[in-house]
Amino acid sequence: MSKIAVLGGGVSGLTSALCLLAQFKDTIGELTVLASEYPGDYHAPDYTSPWAGANWYSLAKDSEHLQIQRDKLTYTLLLQLADREQNSGIKKFHLKTFLQKSSILPWFVKEGFVEGLKELSEEEVKSRKLDPSQIRGFEFVTVSINPTRYNNYLISQIINAGGIVRRIKRLDTIDQIVEVMGHIPSLVVNCAGVNAGKLLREMDPDEQGKVYPVKGQILQIYEDLPFQVIIEDLPEEDKPSPDQFLNVFPRPEGGCIVGGLAAKNDYSKDIDPELSSSILRVMKKHIPELSTATVYNSYVGFRPGREGGVRIGLSDYSLTRHIGVLKVVHNYGIGGSGYQSSYGSAMEVCGYAEKAFSQRPRCPARL
Ligand SMILES: Cc1cc2nc3c(=O)[nH]c(=O)nc-3n(C[C@H](O)[C@H](O)[C@H](O)COP(=O)(O)OP(=O)(O)OC[C@H]3O[C@@H](n4cnc5c(N)ncnc54)[C@H](O)[C@@H]3O)c2cc1C
């Protein structure tokens, strides 16, 4: 029977653990999730999952076929969870998105993939103080996810399926898992987010330079909005920062989160007050429904970016401090898409685990 260690208590590690338990229940003797931080911990800025929006709005380009597959599978499952699992912290919402007419339409609009897709009228574009000669809008059904509620839901599913969840001290290098576990696991799943490159610096030195943070800045408001809004290309007069956009996602329990920023390689933990004022001003201008909104919290978070996109694959590392080989399936560097591609990525992890176990994966009947 296999003994598996999943490193990471964020959405990537938890979803990977759950899918592995569902796929390989006859093969897995023991599956342990190991992490320094778990849902409910807010002290570590490099633990990204608590800070997400989070919604589904695929960022995959037309040429990124694998990423599109991940996002497609996850869209379907998140919508199912919203319908079936009241405790999951996921709720369906309509999203109104506004794009430059000159920009390439997202794949899910071109393919008509998303539910309830329709183009918004020019009047609606105008009513949002956007120029209909430059901007067009679309509406479709997506989800809002409360990250802490959802990740706690995943933990309860893992424990129900027989998995173990254990807090550990920060590892310095990935092979320290052997000491923590007291044996060489049959398989390690590496979901260490923005720290993954550093953990691999001895065994896979190129990775350290590939992983980088993408800073986000968020305001939380008490007021509700019955739909989500994304304005990707803000009018020039609206944005002091080139990395600024607007997204407003109502949360399942009420209130909204308001972003945003996507600043590559910015690891400063400070909240920029000027940017906060700008985000609020821009929100009030384009969403008059929220013109009297009250901000009750603001924060920054760091998306785990990686040159070349997420790394999902199998590596065999010769151990130097022990005799043997560490088999590692990686799942890190997903950037701003950790929730919206979580099940697709986790099913790929299962495919690589199958290689390691020489066993065929089956799609779980119920996730
Ligand atoms: C502002 C903002 C908005 C976002 N909005 C969305 C959205 O709308 N939709 C979406 O899909 N995504 C969104 N994201 C992105 C999403 O949050 C991330 O992609 C996702 O959380 C990454 O999860 P992860 O599990 O890979 O990493 P993390 O959540 O960072 O988890 C890493 C885990 O590894 C553990 N770990 C790391 N290093 C060590 C070590 N050395 N020793 C022991 N344990 C370690 C940590 O304790 C943690 O448990 C957003 C992110 C931000 C910041």
From TrEMBL:
Where does the signal peptide begin and end? Answer: none
Q: Which UniProt keywords apply?
A: FAD, Flavoprotein, Oxidoreductase
List ligand-binding residues for D-dopa: R303, G336
Residues binding FAD, per UniProt: T48, S49
FAD dependent oxidoreductase domain: residues covered: 3-349
Q: Which family does the similarity line name?
A: Belongs to the DAMOX/DASOX family.
| UniProt name for this protein | FAD dependent oxidoreductase domain-containing protein
